[in-house]
Amino acid sequence: MDKKPCNSSQDPEVRKGPWTMEEDLILINYIANHGEGVWNSLAKAAGLKRTGKSCRLRWLNYLRPDVRRGNITPEEQLLIMELHEKWGNRWSKIAKHLPGRTDNEIKNFWRTRIQKHIKQVDHNQQNSQQQKSSSSDHHQTNTSQASNSTMVEPMENYSPTSYQATNLEPFPTQFPTINDHNSSCCTNDHNTNNYWSMEDIWSMQLLNGD
């Protein structure tokens, strides 16, 4: 038996890449006359060789009349940060609280501006802490070195030779001759000044350093 050839119908070629101005006008006019509806059906009915997802994103993010693009205000930025801290990366839910803003724009703003700023602040804080720690360690090292290098100079050693009794007369090499062998060295005679007593000898010895 001869087999009949199977004619498989192929879907029309789907366009990708940037939208043209002509495609934008077709989508805007169709939605203005028929509403949004089901996006896959809308793409075919409007005669656009685009997927339903591509038409939806193009309309919501760029073509709808109330869309707001760029110039995110400080108030919107604070709201994005608060909602992101509460819900995380749920961009569509966050976008519902910012009229006219798209989830795609909010996501891009978060990643390119806020998240980058947060990382930079954290990096600066880490560098600041490392610098403070390094400065503290350097100060402690300098203090330790200064304390080790500080030495108390010893007092000059006292040398007996450094003291010289220059004003004292030298000890006599010979004792005066005592003529009277019977007289005492300790008599209180008027001639006792010519003789040396034991106290005089001890005093002279102390003065001469003997």
Automatic annotation (TrEMBL):
Pfam families: Myb_DNA-binding (PF00249)
Annotated GO CC locations: nucleus
Bias (Low complexity) ranges: 123-134
Annotated segments matching region Disordered: 120-168
Polar residues composition bias: residue spans: 141-151, 158-167
Residues of the HTH myb-type domain: 11-63, 64-118
Protein name, per record: Myb-related protein 305-like
Organism: Cicer arietinum (Chickpea)
